Amino acid sequence: MQQAVILTDEHIAALYPHLLKDLRVITIPAGEDSKSITTIARLTKELLEIGATRDTLLIGMGGGVVTDITGFLAAVFMRGIRCGFVPTTLLAMADAAVGGKNGVNNGMYKNMIGTIRQPEFILYDIQLLQTLPQEEWSNGFAEVIKYGCIFDAGLFDELAQHDLAWYMQNNDALNKVIERCVAWKNRTVAEDEHEKGIRKLLNFGHTAGHAIEKLYALPHGKAVAIGMMIACHISEQQTGLDAATTQQLEAALQRYHLPVHMAIDTAKVMALLQTDKKRKDDSINYILLQDKGKAVIHPLRLPVIEKALASL
Ligand code: NAD
Ligand code: ZN
């Protein structure tokens, strides 16, 4: 018998009881700490206890934490069951729910255990963002601005002209921006699902970003914002990026209440970078900008990264 099970976090379950009331629901505590193998073990047990089978459809309703866990749990439960997503944060709508990457963290190491596996569907309803706190809107815009930086100078300019408050009031404009990010991600994933080439570009801001996220317990979006600024400063030295582009990015991030700088412990960041998934021997395939809307994969030796981080 087919049955659907909703996986959500406790925060969303409390906000949307009317949507969930007649459904089978399992929950995780809200927040990044739930992205662990312990959660997967607990949820596996819970699914078995409520009678889930190979025919169960697992639906993740929530932000990127919920969609990453749902995708991974569905990939490994009974060697694979179907899943779908109902993203409820801007970050998940524009990025995390799309593309099939899923997974959990292993202590300090982000997304180290996971698979690439596509959901059956992603259901969009931006009305769900009405309850989203402003800080989470900001976090979502970090990934949205990322798409402008990597692929789409027009999107970047549009975002730089407006600000957070404007998009929070303009559903049509917001829908178009989400559609544009999803289109870029789909195009990239269709060409390179397993990240052998062009998909690596989506990691812009995420190399130092992931290390900072874990070391300083920052939300993903904020860490990516700082990571993008670091990548721009390195780009100025390595690809000749115009300093004016770095300044434009800084101004744009500030319009969405995102941080652009923080004092970091270079040695600790470097220690985490040694384990980066993009590392090869003593180099990391760093994603740099050549220009607004044009990212490139640029191998950088670890001492060069260390010197750049120390000089920030
Ligand atoms: P999140 O899932 O932790 O959500 C942020 C907070 O918002 C949580 O407290 C949540 O309960 C709350 N929330 C969610 N929806 C809400 C709503 N509609 N109203 C009120 N509150 C709501 O985090 P996130 O920022 O959505 O996602 C970040 C995660 O996504 C990170 O773990 C990151 O690694 C992952 N990610 C994955 C990919 C991918 O390709 N798989 C891409 C980008 C990010
Ligand atoms: Zn991200």
From TrEMBL:
Its EC number is 4.2.3.4. Residues 26-138 form the 3-dehydroquinate synthase N-terminal domain. It holds the Pfam family DHQ_synthase. Residues 140-278 form the 3-dehydroquinate synthase C-terminal domain. The keyword Phosphoprotein does not apply. Catalyzes the conversion of 3-deoxy-D-arabino-heptulosonate 7-phosphate (DAHP) to dehydroquinate (DHQ). This is 3-dehydroquinate synthase. CDD domains: DHQS. Keywords: Lyase, Metal-binding, NAD. InterPro entries: Dehydroquinate_synthase, DHQ_synth_AroB, DHQS/DOIS_N, DHQS_C. It comes from the Bacteria. Its cofactor is Co(2+); NAD(+). NCBIfam families: aroB.
